[in-house]
Structure prediction request, 480 residues.
Amino acid sequence: MNPGAERLLARVTQLNADYARAIDDDRLEDWPGFFAEKCVYKITSADNHRRGLQVGVIYADTIGMLRDRVAALREANVYERQTYRHLIGLPALIGPVEGGEVRAETPFLVVRIMRDGTMDIFATGRYLDALVEDGGALRFRERIVVCDSGRFDTLLAIPL
Amino acid sequence: MNPGAERLLARVTQLNADYARAIDDDRLEDWPGFFAEKCVYKITSADNHRRGLQVGVIYADTIGMLRDRVAALREANVYERQTYRHLIGLPALIGPVEGGEVRAETPFLVVRIMRDGTMDIFATGRYLDALVEDGGALRFRERIVVCDSGRFDTLLAIPL
Amino acid sequence: MNPGAERLLARVTQLNADYARAIDDDRLEDWPGFFAEKCVYKITSADNHRRGLQVGVIYADTIGMLRDRVAALREANVYERQTYRHLIGLPALIGPVEGGEVRAETPFLVVRIMRDGTMDIFATGRYLDALVEDGGALRFRERIVVCDSGRFDTLLAIPL
Prediction:
């Protein structure tokens, strides 16, 4: 790997860690800031993704929709009933690295911790990302969260 | 750590990520390509490994045996019933780093996702690897998969 | 990130990997060596930590107490009934990086493997660390293990 690609890989790795930390620390208001103004955020299953189905469990295509989602979560107090812990693997950079958009694919595991202390594997999967330079930082122009399991908990509420 | 060791660590980390991604993406045909022509692949338990027992649940000592294994899996369609998600820790480089064979030890966690959507911890453990330069790439001359638990699922089929 | 911060991040990442490996390999006698002579080691829950409660499930404030703990574990043979597997995320470096103490925050997941082979998620959370240069190595002056769940297993015995 050349130094430019190494540097980029380090930045994408860091971005993923910051993203997970914001969610796991319950700083949900910081979450939309990881996205570009024009963006797509979608949660879907591996099956639906493979079959090209555009339907996702959660879908947003502006940063405003992401902010609305956080506001709704705060109002509903759903977030008080559970927290997450993300473990994130090494990103794979896809396609050309220099100039324009960067594509990355990153495996993840999310454990959910309920208020009574029980823990379970909430989701595993991979992030399919398109990243852009935006005001000196890398931000998501697109983040498709492809969950390995098609069985989504009805409590699915906090962003993954 | 000197720059040579840092560089090698980055390469081993990358190799592990690529290896896991091939399996988790169901590109099993790519899996034998991570091994040298003369190679050992073995899955065993921590108990058996500690006691020096050579018996492994799965054992292959040529790249041809690895290819046969994938072909058998495709024929049996076992792989359709489940998928894996690997999470891999930072490798530890063991012994001398420059020249010849590289030894590494890397922790892993594998979640299994069944067709009905249920997820469980399938295996945890560490990879004990001997790596060689082979045509410009690092490849496994030996990969011993030491699982922490001695309880192997009878469905054990997809490579770990 | 500047080269100094990158270098430090690599060292903290490595330290965490070495720390986890010592515990998971059952080299508990090596564990106190990751701490400075004057140190704090505490396990607590996210709830207690947030509320500023100083009470921890386990507390030690000298390296001698850590050594005593390992000796007691060996005597009680508790450790023979279970092993751990740590998966550790990317550390976040907090505050000033150059000179004096380094602060880091690192997510973790620990799977417990019982003697009968059953595996469960034992703990998730984050390490809140203060690190110092000590004889050419980074060591913990403080490691607060903040577990996401407040439900601690009564078997909690091996260090996290």
